Amino acid sequence: MSLFKARDWWSTVLGEKEEFDQGCLCLADVDNTGNGQDKVIVGSFMGYLRIFNPHPVKTGEGTQAEDLLLEVHLRDPILQVEVGKFVSGTEMLHLAVLHSRKLCVYSVSGTLGNVEHGNQYQIKLMYEHNLQRIACNMTYGSFGGVKGRDLICIQSMDGMLMVFEQESYAFGRFLPGSLLPGPLAYSSRTDSFITVSSCRQVESYKYQVLAFATDADKRQETEQQKLGSGKRLVVDWTLNIGEQALDICIVSFNQSASSVFVLGERNFFCLKDNGQIRFMKKLDCSPSCFLPYCSVSEGTINTLIGNHNNMLHIYQDVTLKWATQLPHVPVAVRVGCLQDLKGVIVTLSDDGHLQCSYLGTDPSLFQAPKVESRELNYDELDIELKELQKIIKDVNKSQGVWPMIEKEDDLKVSAMVSPNFDSVSQATDVEVGTDLVRSVTVKVTLQNRVALQKAKLSVYVQPPLVLTRDQFTFEFMDRNPDGIPRVIQCKFRLPLKLICLPGQPSKTASHKLTIDTNKSPVSLLSLFPGFANQSEDDQVNVMGFRFLGGSQVTLLASKTSQRYRIQSEQFEDLWLVTNELIIRLQEYFEKQGIKDFACSFSGSMPLQEYFELIDHHFELRINGEKLEELLSERAVQFRAIQRRLLTRFKDKTPAPLQHLDTLLDGTYKQVIALADAVEENQDNLFQSFTRLKSATRLVILLIGLWQKLSADQIAILEAAFLPLQQDTPELGWEETVDAAISHLLKTCLSKSSKEQALNLSSQLSMPKDTSRLKKHITLLCDRLAKGGRLCLSTDAAAPQTMVMPGGCTTIPESDLEERSVEQDSTELFTNHKHLIAETPIPEVSSLQGVSE
Predict the structure, then answer these.
(1) What DSSP designation does 281 have?
(2) The 552-557 sheet, strands edge to edge
(3) 214-222 — which CB contacts under 8 Å span 24+ positions?
């Protein structure tokens, strides 16, 4: 940022919502007063032509009514304005206005006023040319060395140069290989036109070559007629600059030499007449306009360059001499003489901010006021610090980082799930195997009592469920007086039939769970009315479920005991049906007015099956890292072979390839195969992580039923076991869960100060194996079985005084301690085979009648 700002001498804003570009600004004595005072001429894309004569009473004041000499609406968009000797028979200056399909030349004159309103100005159309092609820009000069008049050359959008000798059309020529038009300028010293083609090279064409070349209007004639009508258009010289040009300016401050200045997108070039580079300057900021305006010392040229950082830089050749800050981004800059003030810088922005300024040396600095010094009272500071610490401690105990909105607050969010599925499924994949994927509409309602700002609604569902849209932004949001964004949550349940269909019950299964209740069993037909046909016996005690994709789950209800059994071939498939069963049982007994209903789990914790899913997920992560490392090696090898081949091809003396092409083809096939393997592994990893999350939720559910945990304790378990929504290469599920469980074991579940002194690693990294994680999960269940309780209060770090049966050892860190813990925990957590061999429910035989 510059220390100095451009000193505002006069400024105004043109119109409303008008647009301007670099050709819309011009400074000249357009009314031919002869006193050397320039007028500011501005044309807009809305068709307005304005002429200003700034004369502020006080420096920095805005525009006065008499500053605007003329304002005319020409209807057509104005692309460029120029002032020159465009009318034959006179050397007076006239105004040329370029429209997209028309070129108009006007005479600007003023009439002395007889009253206090001042002089009156008007324009008169001298002549106009209707263009057959859409114009892009124009330039003017004494083409061919004519004296006392200026000719005009217009470049069309398709690359045609049209030359007008004042009131008459001279000729038109197509530039060879033109694709998009570039900036155009005329050099009077070499009598040539200079432009930048779409090939990103500066090209120079002699006027004499253009005049005698083949006429553009005869391009459709035969080849013989072409040869007889003129010469072929050839370029004088070219220079490749490697970037598109924004503008071209040709200056000659002495008669000995002239320079061609080209402003690129990243660089600034100065060329000689023959196309050789005098110098170039790499710019730090993206430029928007430029103007070479004077030569202070012999052999140097000063240039103004504006950029998109609201800055105006002054360079002497390649040396930065001054930098000043503007209130806008300039798209056009000119230097002129206004009200006897020479060197006034006139800038124009794309939205119509017109400013006349000069370079000042009085910086605009802000000086902070002095603060009253007073002695510090340390006793009062200590009291205030203790009060703030108490407030922070109370807040941490009662709520999380983001304060939750109370029910009776300014914003309410409710969600309603449609009872029926969509008639036309909105799923991207309509079929999964032979099953149709259905969709359901969820209506989310936001109710606010006061005006809010910037509300963002996020909807999340667990994979493999997907949303058609998960983010909504509204222009209102509730913020409390402290400035902290407040959060409100709303949970909703989706229908089970969205991913589950009625299926055939199975007699046998590899994985079984038994849920105990304290009430008589309920008919499964009343709990799951959409998953069984109405039979004569309303006490349906067996029901089958089939997930999309083919997995089967069987639910059995005992007739004599208060038990329910869930069984399936896949361990992770048990969670959804088990969770849905418990929720529907609780809702059923609440409707009956029974409040003491409870569920429990008395079987062995199925940790072995859970560990198998953890090992499979971790194995896929290891495999993914190996594949990516191998892919990186093959990519490096592929690039090395490419470099070798390129060197051989560039060599002037041909040499044998020595089977490099065969090696390149083989490496390419390996890269493609490895990339496919990486994608396949990522898909498998995503599916494995989804299964692992389902199994994790099942384990959390069973631990809660087993130890009769409260809702807060279950929330702690969920935060520890399900910290991530998805795996990332930088942070995986295993190391995150291991760190969370280790923290619980050394805080609320610890029994000695030795465990609390253990330091956890501050950096999470991918472990070598899952043995440590499985050991900590087993130890967590062991501590809970012996009376440990989960909590997050600050007092939980203190050693617990409760007496636990059998004692509890510290977290093992050595192999000997690990073996002792594993031997100690085998009595409680047995192998998964124990689940299959558990005592059967008496009603298993009823499956025989249903299987038909």
Answers:
(1) E
(2) 500-503, 542-547, 552-557, 563-568, 511-517, 599-600
(3) 214/173, 215/171, 215/172, 215/173, 216/160, 216/171, 216/172, 216/173, 216/174, 217/172, 219/174
Sort residue 75 into left (φ over 0), alpha (ψ -120 to 50) or beta: left
Give 87-130 pLDDT, tens digit per residue: 988 889 999 999 999 999 999 988 876 655 667 889 999 999 99
Three-state helix/strand/coil letters over 723-749 = CCCCCCCCCCHHHHHHHHHHHHHHCCC
Two tokens, residue 694: 């389902």
Smallest Cα–Cα separation from 243: which of 298, 280, 290?
280
CA distances from 135 to 78, 174, 176 (A): 11, 13, 18
Q: Which residue in 213, 180, 208, 216 sits closest to 196, CA to CA?
A: 180
Rg (CA), the chain: 42
Model-level pTM?
Answer: 0.49
Name the DSSP class of 126: E
**834: number of CA atoms within 13 Å, CB side?**
12
**Cα 218 from Cα 226, distance rounded (Å):** 7
CA distances from 820 to 811, 813, 816, 826 (A): 11, 11, 6, 10
Contacts with 64 (C-beta within 8 Å, 6 or more apart), sequence order: 55, 56, 57
- Which residue type occupies 221? E
Give how far the C-alpha of residue 375 lies from the chain's centroid of Cα atoms, to the nearest Å. Answer: 50
- pLDDT, one tens digit per residue, over 751-808 is 766 665 555 556 788 888 999 999 999 999 999 988 888 887 644 444 443 333 333 3
**155-187 pLDDT per residue, tens:** 999 989 999 998 999 999 999 888 889 999 999
pLDDT in tens, 389-437: 988 888 776 655 455 544 456 678 888 988 888 888 888 776 666 678 8
Q: What are the E-state strand segments in 197-350? A: 201-206, 237-240, 245-254, 257-264, 267-271, 277-282, 287-294, 302-307, 311-316, 319-325, 330-338, 341-349
How is residue 810 annotated by DSSP?
Answer: P
CA distances from 606 to 29, 35, 571, 572, 789 (A): 94, 100, 9, 11, 21
Instruction: Please state, in angstroms and rounded to a whole number, the distance separating the CA atoms of residues 624 and 682.
Output: 7
**In this structure, are residues 779 and 811 in contact, taking their beta carbons and an 8 Å threshold?**
yes
DSSP 790-807: ---SGGGGSPP----TT-
SS3 440: coil
